[in-house]
Amino acid sequence: MSIRYIAFRLFIFALIIWVAASLNFLLPRLVPGDPITAMLNRLEDQGMAVTNQVELIAAYRERFGLNAPLGVQYVRYLAAVLRFDFGYSITSFPTTVASIISASLPWTIGLLSVTTLLAFTIGIILGALFMWRGTPLLLRLVTWFLIIIAPLPYYLIAIVLLFLLGFTLRWLPATSASLVNQMSGFNWESISKIINMSTLPALSILLAAVGSWALGMRAMMITVQGEDYITLARAKGLSERRIMLGYAMRNALLPQVTALGISLATVVSGATLVEVVFLYPGIGRALLTATNNLDYPLIQGITFILVVSVAVGVLIVDLIYPLLDPRITYERR
């Protein structure tokens, strides 16, 4: 891989970050309404008397820099983004955006990284075995079931699991809010509560994702079946097991690895609807709350972190892919 190509990819990466940051600044401000007025209205709805509302709105707008011209706000925003300084949350003032993100992000990364890796591993194995003639019938039926339910949105599966396992059978907690408040420190009791509260959300995401990975791997296995190296391996008299593991599965796995890299890069975005269904304290739920409250700094902070994580993940996959498959090169011949 040439230095010129790496420099070009880094330039594209920086351009993507700049465009995303600019849209991140502009789009929330196109939404009708004023965040300060909306916050004061919520306080009044909760029975809190707000006096001198005009002066209070002016003070808050000055504190958050919303009274400055849009161009000045944009320059200040870009300067703050370069320092990863997103300021204070409007609805949770004086809590900083960074503290809200740091409190929510580990929950999302822990949940989605584990479920993504498990779904990838199980789906790849099931998809490959589905094309092996020696696969038991029961395993084929399980794979067919997972492929059939793969098109279902994960939040619908979450609602069904919530009804069956959370409310009807009561095997697992229906929500996470109460368990989060009971945790104190990092000990075995807290770990067991985390596993207990994360099982239902993880299971809903896992059931929705395994079938997709299995279907993709099955399609790739079908594609490589007619390749010359498979025919040559059979002509050499190699066993079907060795052909499947050493030749077919190995080559069919490369596109799936690319998809895995992008999926891991997007785990930061969270599973918003699943987090809302189970009251899971992740980044997706925090973003939805910030959007409903027109909390500009929090929206900008979360979405910028999401864009950076995806861009970094795609960049890493792009740079290491030639190492995974030596047949691929970005240099001109």
Question: How would you describe what is shown here?
Answer:
- The protein is built from 14 helices and no strands.
- The protein is flat and about 85 Å long.
- The chain is mainly α.
- It has a domain of 187 residues: MetI-like (MetI-like fold).
Q: What tags apply to this protein structure?
A:
333 residues, mainly alpha, MetI-like fold, 14 helices, 0% strand, flat
- Mean pLDDT value: 77
Total helical elements: 14
Between the first and last Cα atoms, what is the distance in angstroms? 12 Å
The tally of strands reads 0
* Main sheet characteristics: none
3D shape: flat
Helix content: over 70%
CATH superfamily of the domain at 106-292: MetI-like
Structure summarized in a few sentences:
With 333 residues, this protein is mainly α.
What is the topological layout?
Blueprint: H1 3-30, H2 35-45, H3 53-63, H4 70-82, H5 97-130, H6 137-149, H7 154-168, H8 177-182, H9 188-224, H10 228-235, H11 240-265, H12 272-277, H13 283-292, H14 296-324
